Each structure stands twice: as structure tokens, then as C-alpha cells.
Amino acid sequence: MIKIQVNNREIDANPGEMLLEALNRAGIKVPTLCYMKDLFPTGACRMCVVEVEGAPGLVPSCAFPVREGLKIQTHSERAVRARKTIVELLLSNHPDDCLYCSRNGECHLQNLSEELGIRQRRYTGLKSNHKPDTSSPSIVREPAKCILCGKCVRTCEEIQGVSAIDFVGRGSRTVVSPAFNRGLNVSSCVDCGQCILACPTGALTEKSKFKEIFSAINDPKKFVVVQHAPAVSVTLGELFGINPGVDVAGVMNAALRRLGFDRVFDTSFSADLTIMEEASELFHRIKTGGKLPMFTSCCPAWIDFMEQNYPDMLDNLSTCKSPQQMLGAVVKTFYAERQGLKPEDIYVVSVMPCTAKKYEAQLPTHSKEGYPDVDAVITTRELARIIKMRGLHLESMEPEGADTTFGERSSAGKLFGATGGVMEAAIRTAHYLGTGGELEDLKVKAVRGLDGVKEAKVKIGDLEVGVAVAHTLGNARKLVEEIRNGRSDLHFIEIMSCPGGCVGGGGQPIGTDIEAVKVRMKALYMIDKDDELRVSHKNQQVQRLYDEYLGQPLGEKSHHILHTEYSKREVDF
Amino acid sequence: MMRPDTANIDRMSGRELKAELIPVILGKAEGMGDVLRILRREAVSRPTIFIGMGTCGLGAGAAATLEGIKGYLKEKEIEADIVEVGCIGLCACEPLVDVQLPGRPRISFQHVTSDRVHPVLDGVFSDSLPEDIRKNDVLLQFEPNSGDEPWDGVVTMKKHPFFGPQTRWVLENCGNINPSSVAEYVARGGYQALARTISTMTPPEVCSQVEISGLRGRGGGGFKTGLKWKFALEAQADQKYLICNADEGDPGAFMDRAVIEGDPHRLVEGLAIAAYAIGASKGYVYIRAEYPLAIERLKEAMKVAREMGLLGHNILNSGFDFDIKIKEGAGAFVCGEETALINSIEGKRGMPRPRPPYPAARGLFGKPTVINNVETLANLPILMRNGAEWFASMGTAGSKGTKVFALSGKVTNTGLVEIPMGTTIRQIVMDIGGGVPGEHEFKAVQIGGPSGGCIPTSHLDTPVDYESLKQVGAIMGSGGLVVMDEKTCMVDLAKFFMDFIQRESCGKCIPCREGTRRMLEILQRITRGRRNEKDIEALERFQGVVYLERLGQVIKDTSLCGLGQTAPNPVLSTLRWFREEYEEHIFDRKCRAGACTELLHYSIDQDKCIGCTLCARHCPVEAIMGAPKSPHYIVADKCIGCGNCFNDCRHGAVIVE
Hints:
The complex is a heterodimer.
Chain A: E1 2-6, E2 9-13, H1 19-25, E3 49-52, E4 59-60, E5 71-73, H2 77-92, H3 108-115, E6 139-141, H4 151-159, E7 165-168, E8 175-178, H5 194-198, E9 204-206, H6 210-218, E10 223-228, H7 249-258, E11 263-266, H8 267-288, E12 294-295, H9 300-309, H10 323-339, E13 346-352, H11 356-361, E14 367-368, E15 371-372, E16 376-379, H12 380-389, H13 411-414, H14 421-435, E17 453-460, E18 463-471, H15 473-484, E19 492-496, H16 514-530, H17 540-550, H18 556-562
Parallel strand pairs in A: 1-5, 10-11, 10-13, 12-19, 13-16, 18-19
Antiparallel strand pairs in A: 1-2, 3-4, 3-5, 6-9, 7-8, 14-15, 17-18
Helix pairs in contact in A: 8-10, 8-14
Chain B: H1 6-9, H2 14-26, H3 33-39, E1 48-52, H4 55-60, H5 62-76, E2 81-85, E3 97-100, E4 107-109, H6 117-125, H7 131-136, E5 138-141, H8 182-187, H9 192-200, H10 203-213, H11 225-234, E6 241-246, H12 255-262, H13 264-278, E7 282-288, H14 292-307, E8 312-315, E9 320-329, H15 338-345, E10 369-373, H16 374-386, H17 388-392, E11 402-409, E12 415-420, H18 425-432, E13 442-447, E14 453-456, H19 466-471, E15 480-485, H20 490-504, H21 510-527, H22 535-558, H23 562-566, H24 569-577, H25 579-588, E16 602-604, H26 614-618, E17 624-625, E18 633-634, H27 644-648, E19 654-656
Parallel strand pairs in B: 1-2, 6-7, 6-10, 7-9, 11-15
Antiparallel strand pairs in B: 1-3, 3-4, 4-5, 8-9, 11-12, 13-14, 13-15, 16-19, 17-18
Helix pairs in contact in B: 9-13, 9-16, 10-11, 10-13, 12-13, 12-14, 13-14, 13-16, 20-21, 21-22, 22-24, 22-25, 24-25
């Protein structure tokens, strides 16, 4: 521990750490725009500059290692004026359309402008003129609003290892863009949406289909069904001032009904269904000498990543559709038959913590006879926006249950929201399918937690199954490369593209960080701990679906409705 | 064994050169005295013609001159050697052709375009330079060697106003030797410093010597070279790198190009010495792709050096390994900044990284790296040959040795000059440069390129050293020195540099990217005409100077790299010395230099105008009215200040104010 002097008071600092970390710990707030915790500082935005005695210029605290005896002024006139000027300069090249911007109220630039007390348009001049890119089904880029902090670029490259976007051009003509200035849709973007969470402004947002959803709701001929993903209920509350980590599934169901949806289903139901299919598929592959290891297929960004980067390994992917698509598919087949509805009159909306689900829903492989399994996807953020638009008060609503048939779920299905959750659910059911008995301790500790890659050996009767769990595509790539290079001790691997899994998804609230992810994960494990139904194979409605309609897991009907296929995807870069 | 003469040494393979020259380098050659004298051209056995074939010479037509000379020799059946040399520095007089006749000192001729070949060579070969040749073509003669019969009435190099006051250390061989001949370099003492350094000194000793010599980086920052090396030497790593920064990007700077084109082995030797000092086994030369000739020369030199065992594995049996790779830059100015340069070599986008960590601790591919500029490295052979004390005896207290400047602009002798540190700007511009040509009046020099500043007449006696230049708001920079006369508008000049900088900003940090653009726009507003100006624009114009200073200060204070931190200098320094010109532009709407054409006011002298209608017909906006044969007048609101009428009028009737 060393001592440094900040604003004439002494504070402690750890040798070797950056000044900003020491300041943050001491409760001294220095604004930042490009700072990303745990990544090497780029020093691009210069917002965190402070005055260091003896240094000729101002010093960026994010990239300045502390040393004994430093004397620092964080809010001297010179430092504050510099920060203010930087924000004024950014504003001078900004569209100035806050009132029309989807990030209004959640914009970091807006907040900084307020914090620094900017009340005058001091610098004026030409503004960069870049056209928005709406080519992607999930993500809209508006480079005119971009302040070039580079966080999206670094997220895409350093965390996801995808590098779909980078800086292009020089000087004031610099822009963040996919290769050749073409659309995101033809780039290597996998639609994970982590860049949206990283973006401090409205330069990256999800693509919304509100108008279409509302016209479906308002159309008396349409039977509008909504499903919500496991991670949404432990997150949505945050956007309504409810303590993080509280499960708001009940009030969310109520709110969705008030919004005019005819049925409210829980995607955790189809997560249970997925487990039945996936665990059976794993056993089938092991027994028949099929391709191993088998990778999970719940995460569409991951599937896209594989289709682009590892077309030679597509056979390793489980052919199971994701829970979102399975639910949509059974609604438009089994449920439609039972209710006497025509599939074309059913409109399925899903609420997901994810932007890639928007991409997944529009894939041709996920529609039958011209009817997509899922018609529209909204993110957690968008749901909150709609609820607020309709003047609903989540806080004062009475909790309600989801609708029957596809409303029942096990807590194993709920675990899908966290990294390792699919694996844990699958192990529980695989044990039952393999041995006929339940695991002694349903909690599989080895696959919980936030390590980038977790591995375990699981005993199922005489069989020892090697399993691994990875989150973020950067970690996934390491694992895939190992397997491509001949590693053969693994049988089953779960991959989620977003840090922490779906609870950290690209459709989650702006400001989602690793702390928020931890709280949401904890909430999911709390639900599981106290639940009465903790294994997918005991979900009565899932069993009924098999008995009455599908037959058995991997049966012909299942294969037809619940499974899909993959193909190589060519992109620019 | 047959001793080589100059002719067959040119035909020798690398292995043969090694056998002949390595003993010379090691000081163990015997009986080579005559050969070396010939290689040094202290005596020639037949006429030898030297022609400056650097990029500047080629630009002035040296290729055609060379053809002309070959044709001439064939026609007259004269047996003569032709030696293609680099640039000697006097670019204003290119193409330069020197002739050395047996028994006579080498004599230089200026402006020898192909049509002048015959008269000039006729004159020199007839041994009796005719009067008109003496008057127009002869530039100077080199110092006579013993026994030479000097040319009558021709000024010698030592007494020549351009060359006389210079001290040529780095440029000692430029323009004198054939850059493709390692033998000529060796004959002038080349590679001896390297041989001595790696066989008799330890790396820490070399670092100390360079530290004692006081050598500082010639690329702009002026960091102490020896100290930088020590940091890298002391860093623990399995691999260290040396990088030569030859990404010479300042407008008007071409010192590095001249050194590489004219004396490439000097750079190779300097690189090897530096690499030995810091313990690097790999070196990179990061050079602009726009310098094709320099790249070719350097590749050639590296190849020969490798064949001779002066590069590569176990150099001169010392156990020291070192080799060099050339990396061509794609023309981004910011890649001259060391961390951006590192990124570029690594194959990444050329954007600076924050420092610390400094490259000496964590540089190229994460390994300790030293980055030195061409001129710094080119100083090393002579420094190590003559010793640190010798080097330190030249210059001022804080700045030792010499500095090469590229002199350009409104000055008679444009070209490369190398002067001892401490020489005043006045000596460079007025004595060596020959002052401002014609009737014009000296106004200022701009020194240090886009990162530098202006020095007005009142500070012409500022000595060239790092600290003194900083005090007057300029920097040493890499050595661009642009002279300006009263026709140069300082606001316009600032605008030019600001435009350059904002284009070349890498776009990473906000103050540089956004701030330089806004500064440029303020300058544009100040120099724009008042026509159609809205009230708000007038207000913005009035605020101009205040905002320029405020922005300049913040950009300087907060930018990430050296490019940004010095970007406002051209504006701040002109504001410091020429504030009244800014105020004239803003408030009086006048440009005293007449450079900001939009601010000029044109009118017609009613007494002089004869009504010829020429101006009216040529006015692009029909702003000139009047009946034929009666005086015309200009409608001020329509006039765009293009100046066509002024240029067209044959009676001097158009008045500009």
C-alpha cells in the first residue's frame, strides 16, 4: 500500500494500479467515457484527466500508474475546463436530437453534459454526416451519434473475438464501421448486442418493431401470444426502481396481459423441452458413436459464430432449436390444433434479454410454410419501454401466473438464464435418463460461477461424461480451437455468447456490468434453491406434450418441429 | 593477388568485397593506401563526372542530364567515369554536375539541365572555362588535394556562402560518394566505428558514451538518446527491438531522405551500433513508401552489408547478431509518433497508445524497444569514431553536435544545411540561405513543421538549440525550416497547418480530433469574406481569438500523443507574435499580406480606366459595370475578390486594398 495525495488529502493506493482505480475506491468521481474495467486502457477520451504536480500536461488517470508521493488535483480549474471543453467539442459534432433519441435519459454523454454544467453552445461548425445502418435485423448503427470512444470496437474484438467493426478513416472523418463501410448484415457481426451495452450514446441501439406488434395486438383476428425468457424476470425490475435481483415474473405476467397479449407463456417451459431433446440427443450420440463433443444450440449468436468461423464443425452443434423457437413452433402447431386456430392467425412475440434472438427469429430455417415460429422479438429494455408507454405501474400490480399448457416450468429451465445453467439442467435430466434415478445433490457446483471456461467430469452410472461451459465468444473460441486441434476428453459443451450468459445479454438494461450480472445470477439460483420442481423431466406439461402430440424425444414429430439444421455462412470480414 | 582499383571494385561480389574491405575496416589492411585514396577521389586517373541523382536532382531533370552526358562522352570519344551521387544539399541549384579532371580539384556546375551539358562540358574539357560558363554555370570548386592545380577565380567550398558556414557531420558523404558503393564508404572510414564498438566496448559503455556525448533525439522530442538506450538495456526480456523512424512526414522536411539516398551505409552502421548498445538483435526501418529511391538504396546497402558479414549472425566475430527489416509506411503522418508506428509495424491501425508503458519497457510486440530517427542514428558512426568528448565539444550547454535543416520557402538558397547547435536562425537564413530573394522583406521563419512555431524578425538571433527554441514558442522538430516574407499571411499559414493536422489526426482522442477541426473552422471564418455573413457568424468571428486560445490550450493539455499535444502550436505561436494580424482580419477585415483573397477590396481608378471592357468581360460574377470607352466601376457586394480584373487590366486602373 502506498500513499498519494489527492485534493490535499492523503489516500491509499496499491502499487502498480492505475490512478483512476485508486480514486474510485476513495470515492472521488472522475468522469470517463472510454474506460472499460479489466481491459487495458486506451486513453482515447481524455475525460478522466487530472492535474499531477510536475507533469507538463494533464494526465489521464485511467492510464497513469500510481507511485508514492503523487500530488493530484482532480477538480482543479484547469482539469474541469479541459473536461468541459471535451464534452463541448463532442456536442459540437453531435446531432443534438436528444428528445428524439432512444437513449434519451440513459445517455452517458447527456449525463456528462449535465454534470459539467454545460449551458452554452460554445463551439459550432460542420458536423460529421454519416448515414444510419439499418441493415441488421437486430442492431441499428447511427454513426452520426458516435463519439468514437471505441468501447464497441473493443468489446467486439477483445471480449467477443468477432471484430465486426473497427475504426475507418482518419481525423474528423473517422467512423466506426464494418469492413468496406458496408452493412452490419453482411459483416461478421453475430448480433450479440454487447456493443449496445458498451455504447455511451445512441449510436448503437436494438431494432424495434413496436408498430407491427401493436397492430397485431389491435387486430381482432390475431391471436397474440407472448413468451418471456428466464433471464428477463430477474432483470426487468431494475428498470422500475425495484431492487436488483428480485424476481418480478408475477407482475410481469400481469403487465403483459394488460398490454393486450392473449396468452402469456414462459420460455422456461420450452427450456425444459429443450433439455429433454438435448439430453436424449447427447445419449444418442454417445451410444451410436455420433459426433462429439456436442455443443449447445440455445444461443443464436454462438450458432452464427460457428456458421461463419467453423463450418467444418457444424455437426458438433446440437440440432435442437433454441427454447424461443421451440415454444413458437409448438404454439403454431400443437397449440393451434388444440385451440382450433390457424397458424397464420397466431402472432408470437418473445421478450428476450438478447438482440441476437431478433436475428434468429427471422431465419428461414425457423419458419414452416411461410409462418415464422416467432414473429417478433423485443428485448428486456424494450418491454420496459412499452410498459411505461402504456402507463402501467409494475410496482402496484398484483402478481399473476403464466397461462397453462406452456406456463409451467421447472427451475432447471429457469437456470438457462445464467452461464452454466443449461449444463446444470442437462446434467440433472441426463442422470435421470441414464440411470433412472435423480442426482443426490441437484446443485452442480462445478458449472456455476463466472470463470471464462469451467470444466467437470460427471458420473452418470458407469459413464463418465466430460463437460465444459464457456461464456463470451472469446472464451468459446479458445475451447473450439482446442477441440479442433484434437482434444477429445469432452462430450458436452455449453456456450453462451454474453458475459455471464443471458443475464448479461445484449438486450438487458443499459448499464449492465459484471456486478449486475452477479446479482441476477444469484436471483436465478435462489429461485432454483427453493423451487418444488427442479428437474425438466418432471415438468408435467412437457410430458403431456410428448404423450399427446410429439411422441418421444428425438421422435419423428420432434425432429420435424423441434430440430433444425445449420449451414456455412459467408460474410465480408 | 591483384589489388582492386575503383573500376573492378564496382564489379566485385559481396564475398570478394568482404575479403578486401574487412581488413580495412579492422585497420589491418596493408598496401591499400593508394586504392583508398582513389576510392576517396583524392586523385583520379581519368576524368570523373559526378551527377546528383537524389530525388531532388531527378525532379530537376538529372536523368536527362545523365543521358546527355553519356551521349556527349560517346560523341567526343572521351574516356571518363560517371558517378551517380546523392544530394549535396543545394537543392535550389539542381541538377548539379561536378567534374574532376586528373590533377584538378572537383568543380561543380549548377542548373545543368540536358541542354546545358554540351556548353558546360565543352568548357571544362577545354580546360579554359569561358566567361559565360564561369558566370552562369560554375558553382564552386572542392578543396584542392595536394598537387592539384586549382581553378582560377572559382570559389572553394570552404569559402562558399552556402557551404562555408556549415559543419557537415551527418551529411559528410552525401553528394560526395556513390551511395551504391560500400567501398567508397569504407574508404572514408565507414564501419570502423561499428567494428571498434562491438569489439572493445560493452553495451553499458556504449550507452554511457552516448549519454556523455549529449546526443538528443533529432526527430522532434529531443529526448536524451543515451538515457533512452539505458532504459531499454536495463529492461529484462528475451527479445529487444530497435526501430529506425524514417517516416519523415513534416511538410517541407527531407533530411532523412537525403541521408538514406546519399549515404545509406551510414544508417546501417548507426543502426548496428544502437542495436548493440541496447541488446537488440532485430531492427526495423519504418520508412515512407513515398521514398522509393531511399528504400532501394537502403535495401541495396543492407544486402551488401549482410554479404560482408556486417549484418546478420555473429557480426565481425564479436558474437553480436543483428539484422534489419524494412517496413514501408502507408503515408499516415501520425505513424511518425512512436507508439502509432509500433502499432503499424504490428499490423494494427496506426493509432498511438498511452505512455507509460514507454516503448523502452514495453514496445514492439510487447518487448523493450528503442525508436530513433534517421538523423540520430546517422550521428552515431562519427560520434563513436571520434569519441563522446569530441562530439560534446560542439554545440550549446544542452544541445550537442549538429543539426540538419531543410531550408525552404522565400529564401535564395533552398536545400539541406547542417550547422552546429547554437548557430542563430539569422545565420541560417541570412548567411547560408542568402536571405529573401528579390525586393521582398523577411517576415518570419516557421520551424518544426506542423508541430512547430513561428519566429519573428525580433527573435532572429535565437540560437538553434532545444531549449531556446521552446522559449520562443517553436520546437526543434525534425528540421523543417520555412522562410516567409511579407507576402505571407500568418493567419493563412496557421490555417494551412491546422488543415494539415486535422486531416492527419488519427481520430482517436477527442481533443485532437474534434478540437483541431473547430480551430480550423474558426480560422476559416476569420479569413472568409463578409458577404452574406449572418449576425451569428459575425459574433463567432469576434469570439475567434478567445476560442482559439482556449481550444489550443485544452488540446495541448489533454491530447494523447505528441501530434495532438503540439497541434495548436502553429496557431498559438502566430497568435503570440502576430496577434495584430489576427485582429486586422477579424475587426478590420483586412489581410495585409494580400493572401486572404476574400478580404481584398477591389475598385477602379476612374482616372486611369479607359473603358476597354476587358475586366468586365472576364469577371466571373458580372460585378463590373460600365459603358464601353467610359470608366467602369466594381459593385462591391457582388465582387468575390478573385483578382481577375486586377491581373487583366493593362492600364493599372484596378486598385486592391
